[in-house]
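REVIEWER CHECKLIST
Item 1: Sequence provided? yes
Item 2: Single chain? yes
Item 3: Sequence as submitted:
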Amino acid sequence: MVDEMQESAVKNLQDRMLERLSKVIDPELRIDLVNLGLIYGLSMEDNVVTVTMTLTTMGCPISTVLEQMIQSSLEKLPEVDEVKINIVWEPAWGPDKMSQVARMTLGYYN
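Item 4: Structure as written out by the authors:
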């Protein structure tokens, strides 16, 4: 029973984190990071959230801005004391990572 309650609490927190991240809009593409498929994972230990993500391109000129937006968004959750960003390049990002809504918005109809 305790495990189920903990699992439910973790799921609820992850859902709230994804909801907050879905409000972080890429200023160039004007689509949120979740629908763009840039968020690969979320983990939390001792009230420190680690966001594992990628960018659409290496050397993305707005990567610092995106990191600040992510941190600001997630730090508003009462359970979160600190946010760390882990940018990875594998698996590589591509249009296939986007949601159907994002693909349609950007004109990818594959």
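Item 5: Key structural point noted by reviewer: The mean pLDDT is 91.
Item 6: Recommendation: ____
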